[in-house]
Design the sequence.
């Protein structure tokens, strides 16, 4: 199988490329320059440095010629700071590229597409039970979730009896890539202000989690197995952590006491601190993709995923604790100014 991959030097795309090649597939990839310094990119990958959103349709056609599958391991998530209106940025990087690229892929004879999405889309689906636990206004108040739901709708709209597609609804992901800044600097900035207190206040919920290697396995497994299945939205998770359990690893990685006390707080209490956050956003001239007055209700959910979906795609066990530890250690070094690494790009 020959795969066209957008995001070939990214944390997730580069790992998927490695596994594709390891399994005997070919990979033609595009990525924004520069590559992260020291990143172990598969030498067999046919990598082209360009902005997929700016090159012509003719140039895209040359890249996808002879390919069997399309993988979109690109875009931006809610942790990327964007100016108002933030939805337009998600539309630019997460939705519009698919509206353009999928028709080109279908015309070129490509039969299937795999798109990396977010498990926040699950919140809008009755069958998972989370929507019933949240206040009204989920999509109206959270541009990022609205955009991820729209992304799935767009992907599904292209499916027919000759074209299959899937969105992988991914949770929090841990792992490092040499030369690239982890997204978890945001978390360090959030909790650092409580370091002088004898305890840390944090929501009482939890989340599904994955390692980078597991995401790579899910991408490859989905690409190999989607044939004849029409449209699929696969929620992918292997380990479920409460925030309390997760933060224990975070504080160990930060070199703080192992017995750091974590106090779980309800949503109404978390909302008491949002005025400061909103003021900081205003000063920076940015809009959050997640409503800071709504987020506490999401964070107090146990947003867990049954690992049966991941296992069905061939995802195997990995050292999630070590992946969290390593991600936080590098994030801490960035925050402390010890290293300067390449940040996230809208590839």
Sequence:
């Amino acid at each position: 199988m020959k795969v066209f991959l957008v995001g070939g030097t990214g944390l997730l795309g580069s790992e998927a490329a490695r596994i594709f090649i390891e399994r005997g597939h070919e990979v033609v990839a595009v990525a924004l320059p520069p590559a992260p310094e020291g990143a172990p990119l598969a030498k067999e990958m046919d990598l082209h440095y360009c902005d997929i959103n700016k090159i012509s349709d003719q140039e895209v056609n040359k890249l996808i010629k002879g390919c069997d599958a399309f993988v979109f391991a690109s875009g931006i998530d809610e942790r990327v700071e964007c100016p108002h209106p933030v939805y337009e940025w998600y539309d630019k990087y997460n939705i519009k590229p698919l509206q353009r690229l999928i028709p080109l892929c279908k015309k070129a004879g490509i039969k299937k597409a795999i798109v990396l999405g977010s498990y926040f889309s699950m919140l809008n689906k009755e069958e998972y039970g989370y929507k019933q636990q949240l206040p009204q206004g989920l999509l109206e108040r959270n541009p990022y979730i609205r955009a991820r739901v729209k992304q799935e709708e767009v992907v599904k709209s292209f499916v027919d009896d000759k074209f299959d597609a899937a969105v992988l609804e991914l949770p929090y992901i841990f792992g490092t890539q040499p030369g690239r800044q982890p997204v978890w600097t945001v978390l360090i900035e959030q909790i650092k202000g409580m370091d002088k207190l004898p305890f840390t206040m944090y929501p009482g919920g939890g989340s599904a989690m994955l390692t980078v290697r597991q995401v790579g396995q899910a991408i490859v497994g989905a690409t190999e197995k989607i044939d004849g299945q029409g449209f699929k939205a696969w929620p992918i998770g292997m380990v479920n952590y409460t925030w309390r359990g997760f933060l224990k690893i975070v504080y160990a990685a930060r070199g703080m006491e192992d017995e750091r006390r974590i106090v779980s707080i309800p949503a109404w209490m978390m909302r008491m601190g949002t005025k400061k956050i909103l003021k900081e956003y205003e000063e920076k001239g940015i809009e959050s993709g997640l409503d800071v007055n709504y987020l506490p209700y999401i964070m107090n959910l146990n947003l867990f995923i049954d690992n049966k979906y991941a296992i069905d795609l061939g995802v195997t066990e990995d050292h999630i604790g070590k992946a969290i530890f390593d991600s936080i250690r590098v994030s801490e070094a960035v925050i402390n100014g010890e290293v300067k690494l390449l940040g996230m790009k809208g590839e």
